[in-house]
Amino acid sequence: MEAKANDDDLSPSSFQEKEEQDNNDDADDAFIEINPPSPSPKKTLGGLNLGLDLGANGGRQDEDAKDTSETGALVREAESEVMIIFELPDGSQTEESFKMGQSVEVLKSFVASEIGMDMEGQQLYLQDKLMFDPLSLMDFPEIVASRGEDVYIRVEGDLEGETRK
């Protein structure tokens, strides 16, 4: 029958082997190599450089400069601005700049807050065309074609009292 060495075995040879093993473990812990981060860290998968830049901007590139796709063009169009001049029922005018992607409802909300005209009672007309709430300014070819020119929108409905402008 063979005796197994354990932690309680205090023979000189087993004690010396255990001490050397403990010293080796401590030596491994003492030398930890820390590499400084590279200036432009790249995402890797299994050692393969995928070329994904994870720098300060989260890897995103300037979309306006890089995105020439149809979607990018639509986003740029929706973010562009147009000056809208509202012709009110009493003959006065008010104006505001809006993004092309904003809806007719946003325009009605502006008129309601600026003039005090109830949104449900408003009707907006571009030339003689009624502008419906779910549509955006980009849905009207006349506005898209205006490029930098002011757009006049006629507001119809009941004004309560005097206008604010």
UniProtKB/TrEMBL annotation:
Ranges where the record places region Disordered: 1-73
Q: What are the Ubiquitin-like domain coordinates in residue numbering?
A: 82-140
The Basic and acidic residues compositionally biased stretches are: 60-69
Q: Which residues form a coiled coil?
A: none
What is the designated name of this protein?
Ubiquitin-like domain-containing protein
Q: Which PROSITE patterns match?
A: UBIQUITIN_2 (PS50053)
Question: What organism is listed for this UniProt entry?
Answer: Triparma laevis f. longispina
Name the domain of life. Eukaryota
Q: Which PANTHER family match?
A: UBIQUITIN-LIKE DOMAIN-CONTAINING PROTEIN (PTHR41749:SF1)
Q: Where is the composition biased (Low complexity)?
A: 45-55
Acidic residues: compositionally biased ranges: 19-31
